[in-house]
């Protein structure tokens, strides 16, 4: 005997199912709104960030970094052209959540970014602070507070940054900004003052945002660079306005380096050269000493960050032993700069 279905019961079932589906799908706009809010935290609330900075779920990491890099490059160029005198302070996170390998990536980011600036007492001055726990906020480099003639790009790249070691600990970002404020009290009156915060975004030990806000009110420009999984709101709030030009978030520390590579200027000027002790050029030849020619001297390239033997005025060549030649009759090189015969 066949079973007769009750049509009322069937319609009741259909209505219950429909009600369930409607209640489930009604949460979709809320979810969409939450995702939009998370995206807005990346570069600030209000109008959407510029198309060059918006990310899509389908976008590859390479194309994402490429677009961020182009935006960062533009802002670095603007910063460089804004003033011939810059006082830059780098705050580098060395907490346990960062790890030793990623800490090295942060330092490489600093080096790559500075490749675009002449570092010398009369040009760009640099300070670098590493921070972890409250007792480990350390000024590793300070060319701002009391600059010396031998503090330049070569000492920074060849001695000071390589000497920095990793410690681990907490993430006392507030203390790092307080240290930056102390350093910038000694900044030049006519210099553009800039802070670069490089972190995984998880701060502890107090809210750093009021300290960052006070620095911004004093005219300090603040860039924050962090990891997407970190405290996005905090990084956003600490950065200067406009937020989409001062807050950059990547997915891992390797992308920090890629971001800096894309920010480098293609045609860097030669820059100036600062006289150095001959011993600084001892690695330029196999003998390990007296590498420079008698008509050359050891100098630091404020743009290259390298020690070089440079032929003195009236001479051209590579600068190493027996490689400086007097300019031909009727020509002259007015100053000691690198280059061949064409410099005479």
From TrEMBL:
<dbReference type="Pfam" id="PF00092">
    <property type="entry name" value="VWA"/>
</dbReference>
<dbReference type="InterPro" id="IPR002035">
    <property type="entry name" value="VWF_A"/>
</dbReference>
<feature type="domain" description="VWFA">
    <location>
        <begin position="87"/>
        <end position="268"/>
    </location>
</feature>
<protein>
    <recommendedName>
        <fullName>VWFA domain-containing protein</fullName>
    </recommendedName>
</protein>
<dbReference type="InterPro" id="IPR036465">
    <property type="entry name" value="vWFA_dom_sf"/>
</dbReference>
<feature type="signal peptide">
    <location>
        <begin position="1"/>
        <end position="27"/>
    </location>
</feature>
<dbReference type="InterPro" id="IPR050525">
    <property type="entry name" value="ECM_Assembly_Org"/>
</dbReference>
<keyword id="KW-0732">Signal</keyword>
């Amino acid at each position: 005997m066949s079973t007769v279905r009750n049509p009322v019961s069937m319609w009741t079932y259909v209505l219950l199912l429909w009600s369930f589906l409607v209640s489930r799908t009604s949460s979709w706009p809320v979810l969409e709104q939450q995702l939009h809010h998370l995206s807005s935290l990346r570069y600030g609330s209000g109008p959407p960030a510029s198309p060059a900075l918006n990310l899509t779920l389908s976008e590859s990491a390479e194309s994402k970094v490429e677009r961020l890099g182009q935006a960062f490059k533009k802002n670095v160029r603007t910063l460089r052209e804004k003033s011939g005198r810059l006082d830059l302070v780098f705050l580098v996170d060395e907490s346990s959540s960062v790890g030793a390998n990623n800490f090295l990536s942060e330092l490489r980011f600093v080096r790559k970014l500075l490749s675009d600036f002449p570092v010398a007492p009369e040009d760009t001055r640099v300070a670098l602070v590493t921070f972890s726990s409250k007792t480990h906020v350390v000024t590793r480099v300070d060319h701002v507070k009391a600059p010396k003639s031998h503090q330049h790009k070569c000492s920074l790249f060849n001695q000071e940054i390589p000497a920095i070691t990793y410690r681990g600990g907490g993430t006392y970002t507030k203390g790092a900004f307080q240290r930056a404020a102390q350093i910038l009290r000694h900044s030049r009156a006519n210099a553009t003052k800039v802070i670069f915060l490089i972190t995984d975004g998880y701060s502890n030990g107090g809210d750093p945002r009021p300290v960052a806000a006070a620095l911004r009110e004093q005219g300090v420009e603040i860039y924050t660079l962090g990891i997407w999984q970190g405290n996005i709101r905090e990084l956003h709030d600490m950065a200067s306005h406009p937020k989409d030009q001062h807050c950059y978030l990547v997915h891992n520390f390797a992308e920090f380096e890629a971001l800096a590579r894309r920010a480098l200027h293609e045609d860097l000027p030669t820059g100036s050269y600062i006289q150095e002790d001959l011993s600084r050029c001892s690695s330029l030849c196999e003998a390990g000493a007296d590498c420079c020619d008698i008509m050359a001297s050891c100098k630091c390239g404020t743009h290259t960050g390298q020690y070089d033997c440079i032929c003195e005025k009236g001479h051209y060549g590579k600068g190493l032993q027996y490689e400086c030649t007097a300019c031909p009759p009727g020509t002259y090189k007015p100053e000691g700069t690198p280059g061949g015969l064409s410099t005479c």
